[in-house]
Amino acid sequence: MKIIISLILGFSIVGGIYKLGHDNGYAQSQAEVAEQIAKANTEARATEQKLNARVADLSTQLVKVQDDAKKQIAKLNSDLVSNKLQFYVKVKPSTNCPSSTPAPAGANQTDVAQLDTSTATALVNITAQGDEGITRLNACVAFYNQIRSMINASPNSR
Length: 158
Description:
Strand order of the largest sheet: 1-2
Structural class: mainly alpha
Strand content: 5-15%
Largest sheet: 2 strands, antiparallel
Number of strands: 2
């Protein structure tokens, strides 16, 4: 009987020590995981702050480029209205009014016509809208590429 009690007591002690070691090991591994998560979160926040700062810089650059473009378009429109700038287009000569003197051989068979101010202004505004769209598209592509490269360079990227 003493042997049975000794065996039960021995197994109980060994089992208790095993359970204590297991519980301590589990708690330690949980602490290590929590520490790794905290470290990853800190690094992710730092990367996020860098990305936000870069996006803000790129947005500021885009606004500056757009403002400069608006100033150039306003100057063009002002120059058109004041006749400092005039637009001309080549036109074919009219065949309704035959000239009394024939054009010499090899002469340029085109005439030039001046566009009125409203048409010239409309053309400038159409091209300005196209330029603005292209500028925004290029900025979007640049945003994407820079953010992608920053994320791919991050040690926590997947």
